Every structure is written in C-alpha cells, then in structure tokens.
Amino acid sequence: MKRITVLLADDSEPLRAEIRKTLEREADLDVLGEANNGHEAVLMASGLRPSVILMDFEMPFMNGVEATRRILEFAPATKIIMHSAHGEEPYVEAAINAGAVGYLVKPAATDSLGKAIREASRGNTFFSPSISKNIQRKSPKTSGT
Q: The domain spanning residue 83 has which CATH number?
C-alpha cells in the first residue's frame, strides 16, 4: 500500500489536533507536519514535499490562497485541498484559481478527509457535497442529441 504524505495548515491548534487524530486512524496516510499560518505552510512544504496539503483558507501572515500559489510554483505535483468555514462561490473560485484540487467546508470536513486526500493524491478533484451541488447547477447542460 502506497503511503500518502500530508501537511496540515490551519491556525486553529485544536482543529489541527482533531484532524491529525482522524488521519492517524488511516493506515495509508502519514501526517508529516503542521503549520499554523500560510508563511509556515510554504516553508514546511518546501522542506517536506508532502503529497497533499490540507490548507485553511484564512490564516495569519499569509492566507491559504496565496500560500497555495507559492507552493505550487516550486512543487507543482503537490495537491492542495482548501478547507474553510466559508463555502460561498467567491471563496471556492479563489481556491480553484490558485490551484487547489478540492475544497472542504468545516466542520463537516472531518467526515470526508480520508476520501478527499486519497482522491487528491490520485489527481482527482474533491469538493464538499454542498459545493459539488453548486458546481453541478452552474455547469452547462449537454443535450443527448
């Protein structure tokens, strides 16, 4: 079984601890480290080169969008999943435009973490169900003719 390496980036220490605990129950996931702001996430990603980063949208010193852009400049193979308490369209669009391959809405995100990380590591996208529904509604309909 191939192990998937993960970096957690969130300014909430209790939430990082909860996420770490959730991920440590998964046999194929290894948490390499935890960053408490965007600047730290960039520095840690540079040294650790994780497969997937779970990135908080709003953090001090550098937000998740800017950290995502910077990380993907030097590590384009790294997959980034944004997570936030905000699931509104402008937030999701900003994350996708920065290069994130997924978006999870807190706090329900912990239920989908393992699946989201596995999908991202395979090069697939993953969104919280509420965001997926919005994306599907906005997608142009194709006719069967």
A: 3.40.50.2300
Residues 6 or more apart from 64 whose CB is under 8 A from it?
9, 38, 41, 55, 56, 57, 58, 82, 84, 95
Please tell me the distance from the alpha carbon of residue 101 to that of residue 65, in angstroms, as a whole number.
Answer: 12
Distance, first Cα to last Cα, the chain: 44
Q: Per-residue confidence at 32, pLDDT binned at 50, 70, 90?
A: very high
Residue 101 DSSP one-character state: S
CA–CA dist 3, 10 (Å, integer): 22
Task: Provide the residue range defining the domain that includes 46.
Answer: 4-138
Residue 145 counted as domain residue: no
Q: What is the DSSP letter of 25?
A: T
Given a cut of 90, is residue 96 above it in pLDDT?
Answer: yes
| Residue 134 pLDDT level (bands cut at 50, 70, 90) | low
Distance CA 74, CA 81 (A): 17
Query: What is the predicted pLDDT for the residue at 143?
Result: 39
The position carrying tokens 């069967």 is 144
The DSSP bridge pattern shows strands 102-105 and 52-56 to be: unpaired
Number of domains, the chain: 1
